[in-house]
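Handout, section 3.2

Students often ask what a structure token actually looks like in practice. Rather than define it abstractly, here is a full record for PBSX family phage terminase large subunit. The first block is the sequence as you would receive it.
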Amino acid sequence: MKMNKAPVNVQPTINFREVIGKGYNRFWHSKNFYRVCKGSRGSKKSKTTVINLTKRLMQYSWANILVVRRFSNTLKQSCYTDFKWAVNRLKVKNLFKFNESMPEITYTPTGQKILFRGLDDPLKITSITVDVGILCWAWFEEAYEIEDQHKFETVVESIRGKYDSPDFFK
């Protein structure tokens, strides 16, 4: 499947250095398979991650995101709300549709999804899929809460999709 970048006309000009602040340059530009943010409470880990993922979703029209926490009942008050904050901060709220009951977020220009799941039952994640593009990125919020490596690996195996874009990295 040929994967193109999203149309440029839907993305506003944003100074990400101004939005994020200092201290996350290596994280922001990393092309490693895994990226880990460490820091104390209030150190911008979640805010930097959610802005990075929002930008990347808008940049790559075939990309979709899975957001994971140990318990599904903690997602709406944390990561889902972080995405609401990010699209407001980036001034692109009009480009996103928020489904409160799922929870799920759709990038309306392309139909890409941001899905939210808990690891309460990791087998529910194994068959997860999207309508548009591929599920290619996962954000493990509070990853230290995941007590079993097998649960983590189940998610990683579920998001590996075929891709052929030279500038793509997971």
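Discussion prompt for tutorial groups: Strands lie at 63-69, 96-99, 104-107, 112-118, 134-140. How would you have guessed this from the sequence alone?
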